[in-house]
Amino acid sequence: MSEYFVAGGVYQDSQGNERFALLGPNLEEPPYLMIDGVRRYFNRLSQHAHLYRVEQDYSLSLVAPSAQALQWGIKAPEKVTLDQQVLAQLQAVMN
User: Fold this and answer.
1) Per-residue pLDDT tens for 45-72?
2) pLDDT confidence band for 1 (50 / 70 / 90)
3) Considering just the CA atoms, what is the radius of gyration of the chain in Å?
4) Residue 6: beta bridge partners?
5) How many C-alpha atoms does 88 have within 13 Å on its Cβ side?
6) 80: three-class secondary structure by DSSP
7) Across the strands, what pairs with 69?
8) Tell me, what DSSP letter sits at residue 26?
9) What is the dihedral of CA 62, 65, 71, 74, to 10 degrees?
10) What residues make up the domain containing 78?
């Protein structure tokens, strides 16, 4: 498997619940998937989310937290196991 990167973080939903979400163009669209993750991430996405590497088991490992996102209160867990809905979106983009 190639090395893939995604941008994400812990956001509050409309009911005020915190949940981990991957960053994409819009809420209903698939997440951004980066192969040249670090450069593209810092050029376009760093103020909105943190950079994660997709592991072989589809868990995510924090690569680079975003100082801007942290200032906005977007948390950056070190390791993330995705729920089934987000996992399905990520696998669809990767395939």
Assistant:
1) 788 899 999 999 999 999 999 999 999 9
2) low
3) 12
4) 52
5) 4
6) strand
7) none
8) S
9) -20
10) 4-94
Write the single-letter amino acid at 86: V
**Residue that the structure tokens 């376009």 belong to:** 44
Residues 6+ apart with CB under 8 A from 10: 18, 19, 20, 21, 74, 75, 76, 77
The pTM of this model reads 0.88
Q: Which residues of 17-42 are buried (b: 16+ CB within 10 A; e: fewer)?
A: eeebbbbbeeeeeebbbbeebeebbe
Both tokens assigned to 68: 């801007």
**With contact defined as beta carbons under 8 Å apart, do 7 and 42 qualify?**
no
User: How many domains does one find in the chain?
Assistant: 1
For the stretch 9-59, pLDDT in tens is 999 888 999 999 998 888 778 898 888 767 777 777 788 899 999 999 999
The count of residues in the chain is: 95
